Structures are given as C-alpha cells and as structure tokens.
Amino acid sequence: MPATRRALLAALTDGPIRGPELAARLGVSRAAVWKHVEALRAAGVDVESTDDGYVVTGVDGYSGEAITYGLDAPFQIEYHDTVGSTNDRARTLASDGASDVAVVADEQTASRGRLDREWVSPPGGVWLSVVCRPDVPPAHAPAYTLAMAVAVTRACREAGVDARIKWPNDVLVGEGGDRGGQKLCGILTEMEGEADRVSWLAVGPGLNANVRPADLPPEAGATSLLAERGDPVDRRVVVQRILEEFDDLRDDLRGAVSEWEKYGDTVGQRVRVDTPGGVVEGDAVGVEFPGALVVETDGGPVRVTAGDCEHLRPTGE
Ligand code: BTN
C-alpha cells in the first residue's frame, strides 16, 4: 500500500477532515486525495464526504487498507487475495530488509506447516506472517511462537471461541481426537541469524477462521471459528487483535511465556514428545522461558525445546 494511503488512513482515524487540509497534511494535490479516497472505498473502507470533511462511516472489507484502518500496532500490512505462502513472501521481504510487516492472504496455494507438512489454506482463513527483527539470540526465537499462540488464543476468545494451547503452538478447541482437541490454528516460525543474534523472524499463524472443516483434510482433525460460532467472524478485527496482542507480548517475552501458561493445557498431562533426539515420555510439569516443556521422566526432569507432543492422560490418572 502506498505510504500516502497509509498516511490518509491515519488522518481519517482522528475524525472528519477536509480535503484541502488532507492535501496539505499529505503533501499531495486535492485530486490525488480524491483518488486515494476512491481507492479506500474500493478496498472496503466506507469514506463519506460530509460538510465537516471526509469521514469513515464503516469498514466492511478484508484488505490491507481495511486492516490498517484503526490498527493499534506498528505493522505495515501487505494483503494478497491469493499468494503461494505468506511465510515465503515474508522471507523474501525479510531478506530485502523489511521489518514489522504483516503479510495477509485470503487464500494460499502453496502453504507449509511445520516440518514441511502440508497445510491447506482455502479462502476465508486468517493466513498471516509477521516479519520482525528483534535484537535477541536465536535461542529466544521459540518465545515469539509462544507469544503468537497467546495472541491468537486471545483473539479467538474475544470472538467467543474457547481456545487453548497445546505445547508448543497448536491452538485447539474441545476434547478428544489424537490431539486432545480439534485444531483451530498452527504456527510456523522461520528465522535467519548468526550464532548470537537473530537477523529476522517470520512468525506465521494459520487460523481456520471462516473456513468449513469439510474443506480441510479430514486427517487434520481441524475445526474453525465459523464451525464453533455458527456464523462468520470479522477477519479484519481478528487480524487486528492478533497483531495488537503480539506487539504487546513481544516487548516482554518472559511475561509472554507466563501468559502462555494461563492458556496452555499440556502441563498436568502425561505426555509423549517426539523430539529430534528421540521420544521423551513422562509428566509435563512446567514450561520455562524461552518455551521449553519440562517433562518429569523416570530418569529425572528433561527440558524439551522442540517436538510433536501427544497428551496421553492427565497426570495421576
Ligand atoms: C503447523 O501447525 O504445522 C503450522 C501451520 C502454519 C500455517 C501458516 S498459514 C500462514 C503461514 N504461511 C504458511 O505457508 N504457513 C503458515
């Protein structure tokens, strides 16, 4: 989105503003203001021309402009109706030096899950990847995934869906199934960096928002906000809330891990975790910064930093 359009959206957030004042503030002609206002209207931001000037009367679109209007977080939105993978696009932007950009798509045609698994992204989902460049060591990267899981969980709860988190980063609803619930959202975090410093992170949640579970692979054991609520959610608001929460949480990563514990349901479960170094089985007793699951095994406590986690039964049963 052009910088002038972003500046126009920011100016309109404060209430009615007249064309000449907008032109002066943005440093463009009145004709250019009019063209940008037309573009906002086409993108679903309802701008009316009143006696007091231009005013936004509603937003009913899902677009870069619609998400940017009223967003209380410093992310530039790059919106696509269709893209291969928002994470792939985020990686390209990051390699070109971008920071604090959120790539949003209505549909993805080549999306990826963790460990190169398939991820199906029909139109209607919240397919999002956030590029940021935190000044932290690579070992702290998992905390950003946990922060994103908290942000998504809160946005889902605000939408009326009782979401919770399974370690490390699956957002689930309900009980049962192989996962101990049905999957609403997964998160793929990718990074580049040196031994002691992250260069960039691409944190990519895929949230089944206005998607029918029948349009997702049956083996995914998935649900959606649409299925849980019975009616579609306003994805613009969901994306805004995710970005606003994530922005707050990334400022205090230790606090983010504590917040994660409020929504996480893995602690207190007998678990089997398939890690790159082998299977770890025992009682999950805690989560430690930057996101390690502490499993009490027959041989003592083990800190697991990555892996697929299966809940076997509640501890003590
Ligand atoms: C998982 O549970 O395996 C993680 C799934 C992550 C999917 C999201 S959708 C937005 C972003 N773009 C991708 O290609 N993948 C992530």
Which labels suit this protein?
Arc Repressor Mutant, subunit A, binds biotin, seven-stranded mixed β-sheet, single chain, BirA Bifunctional Protein, domain 2, elongated, SH3 type barrels, alpha+beta, 317 residues, 3 domains, five-stranded antiparallel β-sheet
What order do the helices and strands come in, and which of them pair?
Elements: H1 3-13, H2 19-26, H3 30-42, E1 45-50, E2 53-59, H4 64-68, E3 76-83, H5 86-95, E4 101-108, E5 126-132, H6 141-158, E6 164-166, E7 170-173, E8 182-194, E9 197-207, H7 225-229, H8 235-250, H9 253-263, E10 269-275, E11 278-288, E12 292-297, E13 300-304, E14 308-314
Parallel strand pairs: 3-4
Antiparallel strand pairs: 1-2, 4-5, 5-9, 6-7, 7-8, 8-9, 10-11, 10-14, 11-12, 12-13
Helix pairs in contact: 2-3, 6-8, 6-9
This protein binds biotin.
Residues 85-87, 108, 111-114, 117, 119, 121, 127-129, 186-188, 204, 206 line the site of biotin.
